[in-house]
Amino acid sequence: MECSVSKNKNNCTCTYTSCSKRGHCCECITYHRSNGELPGCLFSPEAEKTYDRSAANFIKTYKG
User: Fold this and answer.
1) Percentage of residues in the chain having pLDDT higher than 90
2) Are 37 and 24 in contact (CB under 8 A)?
């Protein structure tokens, strides 16, 4: 499967627009996973803006 970077960028909800991995979803997931984090696209818009990509923040956000 070929990566469609321009299409991915159009659908990316991460607000860190200067990230070199933006639109390169495989690289983004690999990067965050290696740091024990989740990518910004899995968070709600409010939680994503905090840049706290921790699993604990993800769980806290969705537990309400």
Assistant:
1) 88
2) no
